Amino acid sequence: MSRHVAIVTDSTAYLPHRESERHRITSVPLTVVLGDEALEEGTEISARALEQAMRKRLPVTTSRPAPEQFARTYAALAAEGAGEIVSLHLSAELSGTYDAAVLAAREAPVPVRVVDTGMVAMALGFCALAAAEATAKGASADEAVAAVRARAVGSTALFCVDTLEHLRRGGRIGAAQALLGSALAVKPILELADGAIQLKEKVRTSGKALARLEELVAEQVAQAGPVDLAVHHLAAEEKATALADRLAERLGTSGELYVSEVGAVIGAHTGPGLVGVVVSPR
After folding, report:
1. What integer is the mean pLDDT of 233-262?
2. Which keywords, in A-to-Z order, does the entry hold (predicted)?
3. What predicted TM-score, i.e. pTM, was given to this entire model?
């Protein structure tokens, strides 16, 4: 049995299922808690079910995977022939998922390299794909981690939301930023920077926010060269598809362009109406 390098990520990478299967990437799910019911992202709760719960103002929280979930995953991959494991996760500034993976890695039957990518959504997904593509060519775990870090360094995630209240409740932004977003109908454009969510710009209306989002993406692509893009949304498919069409026509990128709805974990912190773009240099 060959001793290969296995790639693990978590459910917030939002990789298309076909890509996860093709590249043999294993995903460990985070949990969404609706009221007193804990549900695994991706299998037990959909983005649409989350949207309906939030519109009904049901209490929604999220939680990291337990270290035991990672331990079971690592043990299973070792039993299947993995000699090393690279485990890539969303920003430790946003979740305790990385910490849980580190705890499990200490007792794993094979060496596990746990990486805080500082990313989320397809910014994390593109990192996982970079690792998988590297190992498919015979890269070691160290080389795969280097490929991940190279991908993450230039990656950007920009997004706008209908309200900052969900991010405030989840502790992902401060109360002052949330107040700013509600004052005078300001629609902030947010950015994932240094692993945390930060205010990028202030725009007056949703329409102007989407137009400015497009401009910011175009600026990023002009600086980065060949890129992969992902347009994410929650309950805003029409806006996301239109934005993706404009970006494809305007940029003519030769890389991948994905359009997808985020899962329940990210959706719980952004709320319906999210539209975001990930720019990931190749």
Report:
1. 89
2. Lipid-binding
3. 0.89
